[in-house]
């Protein structure tokens, strides 16, 4: 326990020569959906809405009112996984559902509306219907009953537990209730965490959990690598105290409650390893070495850094500076100033490096 505390509190010795912020920004671009995939997802979404509208137009026990995109796609924290897939959550809303109709029945009716929309039969999940566009993406369809005259929050249909209060719009508002200056980095950091989870292929906390941790614990920094490292440490501290992570809006449930003891243990081990390598990367004197450490956790899509011996580079710059100040430096035909004795000898000037 004492060793753990000393490790947690160890001072970070930032080395600007291995600054990987630009690499992280490039990595973020690699996680983005392609324009062609976005176009296909938009078409799929509209097709689903059309199918559901047509299916329910003559059913008197239901009053379909429309759809609403929710989750990571809505919040702009969606990522393209390593195998080039992604997912979208498309909420389906009914203003009226006959009192005799169960939540599971409503889900079955929505399933029937979309069951032939792709060549792959949709799957019935406990809280949604999943429409699969094989090798490309899938769309999860949660079903809601929301009559503003009767309900303070939407009621989500579940297959085994009836109707449950759930309010994705409230979560979206909570998430976006951040400083507009902070949101861009917040979204990038969440994407990095999700990409880490994707790369490790293990059962990690959900993207929802990562989003809550990031909003609650992230300290904005001019460098993404440092901001991520500091957040990882705070997540470790948080789960060391308690694994309970409450949804900040309705239904205020614990979003980590389904993780098993083994999954929690595996995540803690992965987190410790990531923190160690992140610290070593930030303190590294070589950007290539630092990028390799980040790749251990974020995968090969993370760019490689420059292979430079920063100690030698710093020493060479110091030597050149001394040569310039003593009138013994030379300028090469390329325009570079060196400590070599070839080229055109420089006149002494004292403002070099100032």
From TrEMBL:
By its UniProt entry, which NCBIfam families does this protein fall under?
cGAS
Please cite one Gene Ontology biological process associated with this protein.
nucleotide metabolic process
Residue stretches of biased makeup (Basic residues): 345-354
Which reaction is recorded as catalysed by this protein? GTP + ATP = 3',3'-cGAMP + 2 diphosphate
This one is known as Cyclic GMP-AMP synthase
Against Pfam families, the record matches this protein to:
DncV-like_NTFase (PF21654)
In its UniProt record, a GO molecular function of this protein is: 3',3'-cyclic GMP-AMP synthase activity
> What spans are recorded as compositionally biased (Polar residues)?
329-344
Residue segments, region Disordered: 329-354
The alphabetical list of record keywords is:
Antiviral defense, ATP-binding, GTP-binding, Magnesium, Metal-binding, Nucleotide metabolism, Nucleotide-binding, Nucleotidyltransferase, Transferase
Q: Which InterPro entries match?
A: DncV-like_NTFase (IPR048445), GAMP_synthase (IPR047805)
Q: Domain of life here?
A: Bacteria
Locate the Cyclic GMP-AMP synthase DncV-like nucleotidyltransferase domain: which residues? 68-144
Q: Which organism is it from?
A: Winogradskyella thalassocola
């Amino acid at each position: 326990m004492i060793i753990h505390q000393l490790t947690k509190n160890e001072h970070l010795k930032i080395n600007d020569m291995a600054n990987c912020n630009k690499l992280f920004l490039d990595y973020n671009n690699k996680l983005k959906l392609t324009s062609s995939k976005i176009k296909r997802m938009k078409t799929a979404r509209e097709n689903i809405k059309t199918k559901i509208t047509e299916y329910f137009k003559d059913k008197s026990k239901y009053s379909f009112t429309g759809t609403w995109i929710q989750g990571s796609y809505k919040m702009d924290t969606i990522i393209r996984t390593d195998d080039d897939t992604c997912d979208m959550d498309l909420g389906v809303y009914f203003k009226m559902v006959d009192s005799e109709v169960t939540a599971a029945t409503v889900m079955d009716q929505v399933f029937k509306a979309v069951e032939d929309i792709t060549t792959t039969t949709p799957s019935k999940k406990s809280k949604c219907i999943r429409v699969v566009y094989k090798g490309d993406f899938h769309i999860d369809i949660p079903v809601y009953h929301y009559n503003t005259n009767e309900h303070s929050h939407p009621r989500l249909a579940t297959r085994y537990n009836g109707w449950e209060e759930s309010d994705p719009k409230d979560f979206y508002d909570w998430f976006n209730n951040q400083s507009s200056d902070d949101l861009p980095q917040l979204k990038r950091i969440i994407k990095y965490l999700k990409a880490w989870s994707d790369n490790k292929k293990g059962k990690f906390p959900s993207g929802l959990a990562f989003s809550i941790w990031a909003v609650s614990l992230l300290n904005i920094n001019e460098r993404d690598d440092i901001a991520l490292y500091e957040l990882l440490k705070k997540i470790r501290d948080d789960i060391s105290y308690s694994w309970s992570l409450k949804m900040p809006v309705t239904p205020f449930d614990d979003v980590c409650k389904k993780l098993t003891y083994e999954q929690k243990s595996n995540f803690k081990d992965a987190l410790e390893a990531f923190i160690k390598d992140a610290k070593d990367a930030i303190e590294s004197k070589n950007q290539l070495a630092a990028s390799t450490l980040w790749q251990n956790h974020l995968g090969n899509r993370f760019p490689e850094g420059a292979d430079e011996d920063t100690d030698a580079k710093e020493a060479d710059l110091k030597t050149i500076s001394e040569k310039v100040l003593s009138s013994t430096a030379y300028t090469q035909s390329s325009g570079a100033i060196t400590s070599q004795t070839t080229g055109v000898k420089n006149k002494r000037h004292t403002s070099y490096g100032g």
